[in-house]
Design a protein that fits this description.
By secondary structure, this protein is of the alpha+beta class. The protein contains two helices and three strands; from the N terminus they run βαβαβ. The chain has helices at residues 16-27, 51-66, and strands spanning 2-9, 39-45, 72-78. The protein has a three-stranded antiparallel β-sheet with strand order 2-1-3, with helices on one face. The termini are close together.
């Protein structure tokens, strides 16, 4: 079973990478782009066959390793 973990900085946390991307987009002539936030997507291939158990396992992985829960939030989707 596959789990997709999306990790983003929490609102209010400065995002220098997002700001740099936004600035570069402006430099390339893409007008009208507002705030840009950068994050990461982690795809996990789990041996678990039960969707609820796979989601619980992926959430625990995110809490313990994949996301810094002080400054980042995460979302888990099982596909």
């Amino acid at each position: 079973m596959k789990a997709i973990v999306t990790v983003m900085l929490k609102p209010g946390v400065l995002d220098p990478q997002g700001r740099a991307i936004g600035h570069a987009l402006e430099g390339l002539g893409f007008d009208g782009v507002g705030e840009v936030r950068a994050g990461k997507i982690i795809e996990l291939d789990l041996a678990e066959t039960d969707a609820a158990a796979a989601k619980t396992a992926a959430e625990e992985m995110a809490r313990r390793l994949l996301a810094n829960t002080v400054i980042e939030s995460f979302k888990v989707e099982v596909v």
